[in-house]
Structure formats: structure tokens, C-alpha cells
Design goal:
alpha+beta; 54% helix
Length: 573
């Protein structure tokens, strides 16, 4: 029997792609006509092979030997560069792009499934191509033909990498406070001056050049985000290889993702190229940010999933203690998977990671069939896709440490690294709190609440096809969330409405994952076998054990509690 991978479950991916989402049906669309089940499987095969052969083996090494800066250059372990070369040769950087740009026109949902292998195998190294791909996608959509030729083509070929430069030391996530300046140079370019902080992949020697996408403010532009423009600022001038006024001021040293350089960058009269129109920078950047947010959610799922698989394997092998019903102290110890509390953590973790995986792939599937409805639904789901796995799939890694016992928090076992890496995802690309404000403050209220109504309609339609004992609690939760949302906004006062936005995100997220489990339950039908029985068991678990969590959250929201608005900071000490 072939060894079961502890990186990701190929069987689960195939179930979700082919038995649930029916990605083969996409090949009837002109855009995907050159593809088939065979080409999709081939991409999955090569992704799994490269991830397990070239990414996973140096995951621990890159964590222990993080990048260093000698004042001139950044040094990374050589395995990172080798893995990135192999990745570039696979063609996956431009997998979903149009053929005219060198892309493969692969469906987003298949590309997302492929890339999950890399995120699970080595999230730090996979961050470089993830950012590069998102950077290139933005420029293909909004850049000029010349910008695509100079900057996108080398990224597709794997010669350049890309970043997004938003945050600044004094501003953090508050982009309205960005102070980086852009001054017209008189030749169509701009001179960029300022500092950027927390820039993942911001400096290294892993590629010939680095394409920075920088938010900056042109002199005379209005205050706030409406005054921001977007600029391409390469590390080196492409034609000459000369430095372009972009200096590495230092590296940040994080608790996780240690193999990804994280930079403090200084821009001193650097040459920048305006993307699109002035004043629309944040609008353009949201194209990359939303892709990255789904990527962060996918990464959280991947880390939780590999943590779960490691914990499952360990629980089957580790012998300790006797069954709770055992009376003979001389009896041999049993595998710890037989202990109810270990089973509790395993089932919970399975529900988080397989539910999160379904959500990530569902969101990607919406991208492959753009329509007014699907675009609206994706808008509503994006903050949940980013934030829910960042919290709950991290809990799967927490459970993995607990299942390993004392070994779990030692460096001899990988689960402690999975947890550290995953902890960063609640901050990456907009904190979970920011996602909560986005969901409750914008997404469920836009267009008169049409997005929330569409989401709840989709959930109810699935519940109508599910067994009544599982469908009824989901229907009730839909009705309750709709009432609570209306109540929160009845007075039109954003302060009280958003005071407990994080509770709203948790409740909405758990309802969405319950929906994902009903979808999987329905897709399993009456098929026999351990795999399908596992899906049924976990769907029942999530509705019975997890969905009830939203009751107290909605009670809190319904109460109109404003504790966090009203408290005096002095009371905190």
C-alpha cells in the first residue's frame, strides 16, 4: 500500500474537485476547452511531487536558519532558490493567466488546489511565488502593455519576484495615513520617497529583480485613501541592473514564516511607474489584496490540514494508557486514538480543515464562472475565507500539539512550527478584526443587503437537500443571522453596530462552514466506504457540536452590548 501523505489529502482534494464542485464541467467553457480531467490530474500530480520533493524537506531548515542581512545582501539557505526554480519551470506562476500572456488558462479552483500542496509543505518558501503571482495578476489587469512586457513577463518566467508595499511604520493597517511621496520626474516617471514596513519577500537574492507595487501619495492629492496612487518600483533598473533607490533598512524576525524575508524598505528618490490612473491606487491594490486574502485563508487551511494529518498518524502509532473501560493495569497500552478526548480533538480538527478547504475551493470556483451573482457572493465570502481558517485551522494545529503531548512543543516534531507559522495568518493581509469590520460594516450591507440575502439563500437551498435533523439547525441559524444583522443596523449608527464585529464574523463563519459540511454530506450521497462515512460523521459533528457556538455570539450582538465602546482606558491599568 502506498504511504499516505502527511502533507495534504489527495483523496479529499479529488472528492471536492470532482465529486462535489464538478470542475470537469468547466472544460465545456471556451476558456478551459484545452483542459480535461487528465490535465487537471497532471497538474495535481506535479504539484504534489514538487511540494513533497523540493519544498517539504527544507521546511524545518528554513525555520531554523532564517534569512540574514550582512548590511549588503540577504542570505537564504540554497534550498529555497532551488525550489523556486523548479516551481517556475512548472508553469504554475501564470497557471490561470490568458494564453496571450504565457498563461495556461487553468481554472482558478484547480490552481488553488495545486498551490495548497506547496503551502502545506513549506508555507515560507511558497510565499514568494504566491506574492509574485498576485503581483503579476494585478499588472495584467491594470498595467500598460509596456509594463506587462517589462515586469510581468520576467515574473512569469521566474526571473523576477513581486511584492506588495502598503504598510508603513507609523501607519500599519491604516492606509489612509500612508505618507510615502511620489513626485513627477517630468519624463512620465515618478520619484518615490518614503518607508515601508512588514514587506514579505521584500529583499533577497533569489531572483534577478524584485517588482515592488508601492502605494504612494502624489503632491496635492487629497488626504485619506482617495489620494493614493499605485506605482511599480523595481529593486533594480531592468535595462541596466543598477540600484533604483530601494534600500533594505533591516529584516524583521517573526515567530513563523521564518524562511520568508520580511523587510523594512527605504525608498529614496526611486524611479516609479504609475499603474493606471492617479488616485485609484487602493482600488487597484484590492485586486492583489483580495487574491492574497484568499491565499492567506488557503495557507491557514493547508497548515491546519498538515498538522491534523501529522496528529492523526501519531495518534494511531503512539501507545499510552488503557481504555476508560479497562480494568486490568497489566493490560498492554493502547494507541491514544482510542481515548475519547484524543478523538474529540481529531474530529474537531477534521471538521475545521476539511470544512475550510471546501470553503477555499468554493471561493475559487466562483472566480471561474464570473457573473453578477457569483461576484457578489465572493465579495461577501472573502473576509470569511481569510479570517475563519486563520482562527479555526490554527486551532487544529493547537490540537495537534496537544495530541503529541510533551513531544508536541519540542522542535523534534513539526507541529509546533505549523502552529507558529499559522499564527501569522490572523494578521497577514488585514487582521481578523479588519475582516470583521469589512464583513459587517460593508459586505453584508452593500446594495441594501443583497449580498447577505444571496449567501443565506444559497445556504438554505443546500439545507433543503440535506437530512432534516441537520437542515433544521442550519435554517434556524440563517434566520437568526438575518434578524441580528437587521437589528444591528436598524438605527444606522456604525459605532454600536460594529462594537462586536468580531463576534459577528465568528458566527457568520461558523454558519458558512456548516453550509460547506452540508454540501459535502449531500455530495457523498449514499456511497459506501470509510472516506464517505468520515464525511458523514464530521458533518454531524459540526452541526451538533460547532454550529451551536453561534447562539451565544448572536445573543451578545442582540443585546446591544457596547462595552468596548464605553470603557475608560484607565480601567485597564
Amino acid at each position: 500500500m502506498a504511504e499516505v501523505s502527511k502533507v495534504l489529502s489527495r483523496r479529499d482534494l479529488e472528492f471536492l474537485l470532482y465529486e462535489w464542485l464538478d470542475v470537469e464541467a468547466l472544460t465545456s467553457h471556451e476558456r478551459f476547452a484545452d483542459h480535461s480531467r487528465e490535465t487537471f490530474d497532471a497538474f495535481l500530480d506535479v504539484s504534489q511531487r514538487i511540494a513533497e520533493r523540493d519544498f517539504a524537506p527544507h521546511n524545518r531548515t528554513a525555520d531554523l536558519r532564517e534569512p540574514t542581512f550582512d548590511g549588503d545582501k540577504v542570505e537564504t539557505i540554497p534550498e529555497v532558490a532551488r525550489a523556486l526554480r523548479v516551481f517556475a519551470e512548472s508553469g504554475l506562476i501564470a497557471a490561470t493567466m490568458d494564453a496571450e500572456h504565457g498563461g495556461l488558462q487553468l481554472p482558478h479552483v484547480v490552481q488553488r488546489a495545486c498551490f495548497l500542496w506547496f503551502q502545506a509543505a513549506n508555507t515560507a518558501t511558497s510565499a514568494y511565488p504566491m506574492l509574485t503571482s498576485a503581483n503579476a495578476h494585478l499588472l495584467v489587469k491594470y498595467g500598460s502593455a509596456e509594463q506587462i512586457r517589462r515586469f510581468v513577463q520576467p515574473m512569469i518566467e521566474g526571473r523576477y519576484t513581486g511584492t506588495m508595499c502598503l504598510s508603513e511604520p507609523q501607519a500599519g493597517s491604516s492606509l489612509s495615513d500612508v505618507t510615502t511621496r511620489a513626485t513627477p520626474a517630468g519624463d512620465g516617471t515618478y520619484r518615490i520617497t518614503g518607508g515601508k514596513m512588514w514587506i514579505s519577500a521584500g529583499d533577497h537574492e533569489l531572483s534577478e529583480n524584485i517588482v515592488h507595487l508601492v502605494l504612494a501619495r502624489v503632491a496635492g492629492a487629497p488626504a485619506g485613501v482617495k489620494g493614493l496612487s499605485l506605482f511599480i518600483v523595481p529593486k533594480l533598473i531592468p535595462e541596466t541592473g543598477e540600484r533604483n533607490g530601494v534600500t533594505l533598512a533591516g529584516l524583521n524576525h517573526k515567530m513563523g514564516f521564518r524562511g520568508t524575508t520580511n523587510a523594512v524598505l527605504a525608498f529614496d528618490d526611486a524611479t516609479g511607474h504609475l499603474v493606471g490612473e492617479a488616485g485609484r491606487g487602493l482600488q487597484y491594490m484590492f485586486h492583489m489584496m483580495n487574491e492574497a486574502r484568499i491565499g492567506v485563508g488557503a495557507g491557514a487551511v493547508a497548515l491546519g490540514y498538515t498538522g491534523y494529518l501529522h496528529a492523526l498518524a501519531y495518534a494511531k502509532e503512539r501507545e499510552q494508557g488503557r481504555p476508560v473501560t479497562g480494568k486490568d493495569p497489566a493490560a498492554p497500552p493502547v494507541p491514544i486514538i482510542r481515548h475519547p478526548d484524543v478523538r474529540r480533538m481529531l474530529v474537531a480538527s477534521k471538521s475545521y480543515v476539511e470544512g475550510g478547504l471546501a470553503l477555499v475551493l468554493y471561493a475559487a470556483r466562483l472566480l471561474d464562472q464570473p457573473s453578477e451573482e457569483n461576484d457578489l457572493l465572493l465579495d461577501v465570502l472573502t473576509p470569511i475565507v481569510k479570517a475563519w481558517p486563520s482562527q479555526w485551522c490554527r486551532l487544529a494545529d493547537d490540537h495537534a500539539i496537544q495530541i503529541h503531548g510533551g513531544y508536541g512543543y519540542t522542535r523534534e516534531y513539526p507541529v509546533e512550527q505549523f502552529y507558529r507559522d499559522n499564527r501569522l495568518n490572523s494578521i497577514h493581509e488585514g487582521t481578523d478584526g479588519i475582516q470583521a469590520l469589512d464583513l459587517l460594516g460593508r459586505k453584508v450591507t452593500m446594495r441594501g443587503g443583497a449580498g447577505l440575502e444571496l449567501l443565506l439563500d444559497r445556504i438554505r437551498a443546500t439545507a433543503d437537500r440535506a437530512p432534516k435533523d441537520l437542515a433544521d439547525p442550519v435554517h434556524r441559524a440563517c434566520d437568526r443571522l438575518a434578524r441580528t444583522t437587521a437589528m444591528l443596523w436598524a438605527a444606522g449608527d456604525a459605532g454600536p453596530a460594529l462594537a462586536n464585529a468580531s463576534a459577528y464574523l465568528d458566527a457568520a463563519g461558523h454558519l458558512v462552514i456548516a453550509w460547506m459540511w452540508l454540501e459535502q454530506l449531500v455530495a457523498s450521497g449514499d456511497r459506501e466506504g470509510d472516506f464517505y462515512q468520515g464525511k458523514r460523521l464530521t458533518a454531524h459533528y459540526f452541526v451538533a457540536h460547532e454550529l451551536p457556538r453561534i447562539g451565544p455570539l448572536l445573543d451578545l450582538l442582540d443585546s446591544g452590548d457596547t462595552l468596548f465602546l464605553d470603557l475608560n482606558e484607565a480601567w485597564l491599568g
